[in-house]
Structure formats: C-alpha cells, structure tokens
Amino acid sequence: VGCGMGLNTFAAIKAGVQLRDKPLLPIWNCDTDARARTLISAFTDTVCFGDFADTNPRKLRCPHVLVGTTDCRDMGRIGSRLGGLGPTGQDFLSLPHWVVDLAPPIFICETTADARFMHDGDDVTEAIDTLEAGGYVVHKSVLPCAAFLDITSRQRLILFAKHRSMSNAAVPPRWPMPVQKHAPPRLHDIMENDDDVPAGLWILCEYAP
Fold first, then answer.
1. What digits encode the pLDDT tens for the residues 123-145?
2. Torsion angle in degrees (nearest 10) through CA of 75, 79, 81, 82
3. Residue 184 and residue 172 in contact, taking contact as beta carbons nearer than 8 Å
C-alpha cells in the first residue's frame, strides 16, 4: 500500500532485503496516484489494485509483512493541517480498519511525524486504538530521515504493529544504527528573511524540534 513516496520502500525490498535468508518480495501494491501505480508496478513486477479503499482485503493474498503509507498532505505542518478531517487524513484513519480485515502478521505504517500534533494527537491515537482492538500490539517510533542519509530535516512516524498471535509481538522493532547524528542545516535557517523572499513564502515551523 503506497502513496508514491513508498517507491523508496519498494526499492529496498526489491533489492533483496533478507529476513532469515529469505528475500522479501512485494506480491501486490495499491496507490491512489495513476503515475505512481505505473511506476511501482513496472519497478516491482507486481499488480497494482489502485486505491486500497476500493479493494476488498479479504480477497487479496495476505502478505507476511504489509508496508502501508498514505498521502500525508492533511497530516503535515506545511499541508492543510486538517488531520483526520481531510480526505488524505481520512485515508490514514481508514487504513487500520482495512489492515485488520486483511490481518497480516506484521503491519508497518509510515507517515509524517507532524501527525502526532494533529488534533492534539487524537488521529494517531485513533489509528493505534483500531489496530489494538483488531489484535495487534503497536510500537510507535519517530525516526529522523537525515540519520539514514535522506538529507532533509524531516522526521517520520512509524507504527510497527505485530499481531498478538506472534510469539514476539511485545518485542519492539530494532532499527539500524543511525548513519549520521546531525541533520543538515535547513534553508529556512540559512536564508536571510529580507525583501528578496516574499513574507507569504516563509514557513512557520512551530512543530519543529
């Protein structure tokens, strides 16, 4: 299940990520964007089912690990900030219900870390509650992209859900060691706030750490 930016995840999987000496290969994908559907299908040799909300999860082949991400324009500080009230925010809230019906042993959901601040965190809490009610143990992490060589100041919220039927469901994920400790300076921090940049183009970063 992707949102276009999931191409990075598909690329890593396609390159031969190993789990107990067995390659993880995608068996199908979903995306709301037509161009992303074409790219992902061509890159991974998988069938794309379009928008996940239009599919019946009970009729899909269930993967061992489901990687899910939705368009985060409603969840980010530079987006609409509507959270779960916006159309892409509704996708974020409906995805856990869809996952519970599909019932993969492991579900990994990635979105912008700003989602923690939408409606005082209620949107993320609702997503976690849905997964927990559906039989999952959910581990929440925030990872800085720059630590893993994605040279931006962005942070990503990861919900790592393991079904309670797994013997190690209570064990949190162990992420790779960060490649670098410090994020690169932001253009916002370097540029001088003068007449060369119209005031309306400056982004307020009240959510930034």
1. 999 999 999 999 999 999 998 88
2. -80
3. no
